[in-house]
Amino acid sequence: SPAAIVITEQPVSVSVPAGYSLSLRCRARGRTPLQYQWFCQQQSVSHQIPGATKPDLPITAQQSQLYTCRINDLHRNAVFSDWVKVEVLQCVARGLPSQLWRGEPVIVVHPSEQRLEVGKPLQLQCVAMGVPAPSYQWYQNGNLLEQQKKKKLWIPQAKVSDSGTYLCCASNHHGEHWTNAVDVYIGKMFLIFTKPKEVMPCLLLRNLVFLLATGKIALLVGNNHYQHHPNLMAPLMDVFELSRLLEKLGFQVVSLLD
């Protein structure tokens, strides 16, 4: 029966530069001596690897492939290990890790800033090498995004609320590595500056805000401190009042002072 063989150590996926040497490991126990046979799969076709009949499979990574190991006992029972991926990152072929690299995550592709219209797809990408292959977790404005656990963050139809600062953490049991933080802007951006000696009645401000209500993001800049002028209080209050009003209208508001 299948229970006659128990896999005690599954192989694990890895993400490595081209030319990197490693071994996939599989361990099992059974009631009789066990036999191992490794298989690889590329383009949906599986092949038995000649001579790969040991619990460890040495590999020099050249191209991305899937691997599994079949374990047999003397009673013709057989089980297969998990399929694992050896991902080869051609983009870092020139910069092979040093001999001191222990497999901790190293990010090789960082996400880039995005400016999109509402309803367009949002995609951010993070690629990291690691042994074992790193897991990914995306964050928006410091908040963990429960559904975004892949290399590519994908939102089919971006909303105003998807605006913000994004970053990704790649981690395995050796440690973690964070991407650069990037800004994502969804919709149009309007700049409203408050300046000294420039009086704009509250009613006019409100009318301006309603005229701009088709926009989705507002950047408010209040200049309080000037080298040759006393500190001002009006810009601070203007930014505060405008922020509240714009947020009620559904704007994503970024407020800056000085």
Automatic annotation (TrEMBL):
InterPro entries found in the cross-reference section: Caspase-like_dom_sf, Caspase-related_regulators, Ig-like_dom, Ig-like_dom_sf, Ig-like_fold, Ig_sub, Ig_sub2, Pept_C14_caspase
Domain of life: Eukaryota
Caspase family p20 domain segment(s): 214-258
Record-level GO BP terms: proteolysis
Keyword Disulfide bond recorded: yes
Keyword annotations from UniProtKB, A to Z: Disulfide bond, Immunoglobulin domain
Signal peptide stretch: none
UniProt feature coiled coil, ranges: none
Gene3D superfamilies: 3.40.50.1460, Immunoglobulins
Matches recorded under SMART domains: IG (SM00409), IGc2 (SM00408)
One example GO MF annotation: cysteine-type endopeptidase activity
The UniProt record lists the keyword Oxidoreductase: no
UniProt name for this protein: MALT1 protein
Organism annotation: Turnix velox (Little buttonquail)
Gene it is expressed from: Malt1_0
